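Quick illustration, no need to memorize.
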Amino acid sequence: MKLIGSYTSPYVRKISVMLLEKGIAFEFVNATPWEAGSQVSEHNPLGKVPVLIADDGQAWFDSPVIAQYLELLGIAPALLAREPAAALWERQIEAAADGILDAAVLLVRERLRPAPQQSEDFLLRQRDKISRGLDWLEQNLNDQRIAFDPPRLGAIAVGSAIGYLNFRRVVPGWCATRPLLVRMAGQLFQRESFARTEPPAS
């Protein structure tokens, strides 16, 4: 099995953590879509990572689809519940985490533009999405609706999102009023799967 992606992509990290948690051997191919000669677009017409090349040669792309594929392999531990409603709830948590990531990535890219060209309204909208998403996660942790010991798909997605916020210093004060998310992230980051997929410092 081959995983194509970037060491700094949080979507790729989510899939890497899943593979490691399940003990699935895979080759990691470090590739970014915008580099000349990148193989990403050969396997994903949308030119996005991650891309998973299965043992039968089938290419799977988009991290929620890849996550579903990995669960269909039936390899323990299961990261989605067998009961449909419980599995759907895990997907809801994943969607919230991915939505936070989507806003964070847009915010980071906007900040790379020259200051006079940046849209403060756009930046504010992305920060609001991130803040509301984190508040939603904190509330559901308080309601004991997010399990993370051991982690399932939702928790892995949340850990990947928080890792990216810290890595890119997006909304640096996010942890001040969200102690349950801080505790959850701390426990997740101690796991070997998260430690091995921490993005490089530079």
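The chain has a mean pLDDT of 96.
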